[in-house]
Amino acid sequence: MPLDRRRVIECADCLCLASRKGARTITRAYDRQLRAYGLRATQFTVLAMLELKGPQPLGELARALGTERTTLTRNLAVMELQSLVTTHPGNDARQRIVEIAPEGRKTLEKALPAWRRAQEELTASIGAPLADSLRRLARAPGF
User: Fold this and answer.
1) How far apart are CA 73 and CA 42, in angstroms?
2) Res 77: pLDDT
3) What is the mean pLDDT of the chain?
């Protein structure tokens, strides 16, 4: 027996769906700008975070980026092959420390203007109030 459409119609305005589609749109805009530097938006963000915070245990870096450890591990393996980051054991044998490599720092510096262009274009497109709302949502406890 099919569901009554009236009970499901509000799902068309689902915040989860809208945010996921919005995130993909935003990511593609950054990817377009960063492509000339051989970076994806996710890689740029890892480099920027490492530059800002210094060497990080993989778990702490994953938390700071809001990503799963397994996803970050896969991304870091590619970045290590590109000489953008290095990893080494921490004090605990189970811990891996991630650090930006000299090549990663150079790439970050070269790509920064492209990132800034994407940031400015997206902010102009969606408006500063919505951009600020996205930042607040990302910083909200429990998110």
Assistant:
1) 12
2) 96
3) 93
Lookup: tokens for 113: 């203007």
User: Which of 40, 64, 41 lies closest to 54 in space, CA to CA?
Assistant: 64
**Residue 140: is its pLDDT beyond 90?**
no
Q: Which tens digit of pLDDT belongs to each residue from 39-86? A: 999 999 999 999 999 999 999 999 999 999 999 999 999 999 999 999
Residue extents of the structural domains in the chain: 41-118
Please report, as a single letter, which amino acid is at residue 38.
Answer: G
The arrangement of secondary structure in 41-118, i.e. its CATH architecture, is: Orthogonal Bundle (1.10)
Q: How many residues does the chain have?
A: 143
What secondary structure does DSSP assign to the chain, as a single string? Answer: -PPPHHHHGGGGG-HHHHHHHHHHHHHHHHHHHHGGGT--HHHHHHHHHHHHH-SEEHHHHHHHHT--HHHHHHHHHHHHHTTSEEEEE-SSTT-EEEEE-HHHHHHHHHHHHHHHHHHHHHHHHH-HHHHHHHHHHHHSTT-
